[in-house]
Amino acid sequence: MRHSHFLAALLFNTTAFMRGQAPARPQFEVASVKENPTFSGKSEGIGSPSPGRLKGRNVPLRLLCRIAYEIDTFNIFGGPGWMDSAGFDIDAKAPVVPGQLRADESKIRRLVLQSLLEERFRLKTHIETREMPIYVLTIAKGGLKMKPAPCDPIETACLAKLAEAMSTWPQPINGAWEPVDRFLIGLATYTNGNRAIVNKTGLTGVWDMHMQWAYHPPPSPVDAGRQTELGDPEGESLFTALEKQLGLHLSPAKGPVEVLVIDSAEKPGPN
């Protein structure tokens, strides 16, 4: 029960911040942010090598915003011209609570990254709702092909499977245990359509997913350099694989989408 209250508080704070309010958020204990003069157009990696730690090399501001606000890069608008043309090295440490669940830690990292962007990049943002092209996800006519995962969403083993799945995209998905909404965060990047995906499946809980498709690098400036080898470049498209292998269907539509607008940002000064 204590974990449930903790998660609810974190989600409330994140939502309030995205809607222009200013709740108290955790800060990085120490943080170094420096522009890297060797930036060649794509990030060389960003991750959490240890609890509470965030390290990245040559990470552009757009990707940092994507991670901090958990929003697709094509739904981030405005900002300075260097958002995609400058890379930054980041090494920061956030507070860690002993025994903290992995999902809790992930949310804390996002909140403290928001604080870091505000402090070091003088980032100012707001949320708008815009009518835009979207994809609607429904259950395919042939029915579901995937099965519920044999775990509880807050169990450690289940969270490890979820994290593993997100870290290996766009490699084939082999037994990834994920909620559908979490799955869509990664999926939207690989539709090559720059559209948000609205979940109309009605599915809840965590699902055991197995899927492989022919990957083609998307046009996003952040992800354009990513490559992968799936063994069959002429294999099924993502849309076909979703339907045949998972029993899910994507259809184009138009609808309201919440987007992040960058009002202003500055390159960080000396640490």
Structure write-up:
The strands form three sheets. The chain has a four-stranded antiparallel β-sheet with strand order 1-5-3-2, covered by helices on one side. Strands 4-11-6-9 form a four-stranded mixed β-sheet. It has two domains: 124 residues, no CATH class; 128 residues, no CATH class. The protein has 271 residues and is of the alpha+beta class. 28% of the residues lie in helices and 29% in strands. Strand 2 and strand 3 form a beta hairpin. The chain is built from six helices and eleven strands. Helix 1 packs parallel to helix 3 and helix 2 packs across helix 3.
Physical arrangement of strands within the biggest beta sheet: 1-5-3-2
Distance between the termini: 40 Å
* Count of all domains: 2
Beta fraction of the residues?
A: 25-35%
Q: What attributes characterize this protein structure?
A:
disordered N terminus; 4-stranded antiparallel beta sheet; globular; single chain; 6 helices; alpha+beta
Write a compact overview of the structure shown.
The chain is α+β, with helices and mostly antiparallel strands and 271 residues long. It has two domains: 2-125, no CATH class; 130-257, no CATH class.
Secondary-structure blueprint of this entry?
Elements: H1 2-18, E1 30-36, E2 46-47, E3 53-59, H2 61-69, E4 76-78, E5 87-93, H3 102-120, E6 124-139, E7 147-148, H4 156-168, E8 173-179, H5 180-187, E9 196-199, E10 206-211, H6 238-246, E11 248-264
Parallel strand pairs: 4-11, 6-9
Antiparallel strand pairs: 1-5, 2-3, 3-5, 6-11, 7-10, 8-10
Helix pairs in contact: 1-3, 2-3
